[in-house]
Amino acid sequence: MRRNLIRLLVITCFYAPTFSQAQDARPNPCRPSDERVTLTSSSAEIPEPLKRPNKIVPLGCDRPFVYRNEIYSADPPQVQDASTLKYFVRDVPEANKILEDYQSARIRSRISAYTGTLGLFLVIFSGPLGNQFNKSNPASLTSTLRFSGMALAAGGFIYSITLIRTNDSLIPRAVQTYNRAKPDDPIELKFTTGWSF
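and the corresponding structure tokens:
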């Protein structure tokens, strides 16, 4: 039924002038007209031009350095691993090795996310797990699981913080090594790697 109505509408719109014997002065609504509409300032409100938004840089996401009077970011946009900086220090093998150590330590720090998640899982589900596996004395297993989970989560957090803090000292050390090897072509860091609590 719907298709028949659509076909009838198409035939009526496009072939209506050929079917009608008398052409009246009414315009065909299906065909575009040659009339142009001009808008004046009184016929429509003219909005103010859009302002460009201020650039917002989230805290700690941009780590710039200067090389040959050009400013670069130490990291690519996807990950904070100093691979852009590594590109510039690749000519000095010792500095390149330090940044490779930096990158591998960042990968090793991911284990703390897994241990922290497992620890929180044990803390949250210690009650049901204790009841499920120890029917005679569920309270002792529940408390053991709860304390083990807290220790695992806290240990993963402390390991991660310690590894990242010591790892961040490798970037200035790599730049210092590069600058000692190439004093005529230095790199200047424009960020600090220390944390303040």
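(Above: one complete record from the training split.) Residues 64-189 form one domain.
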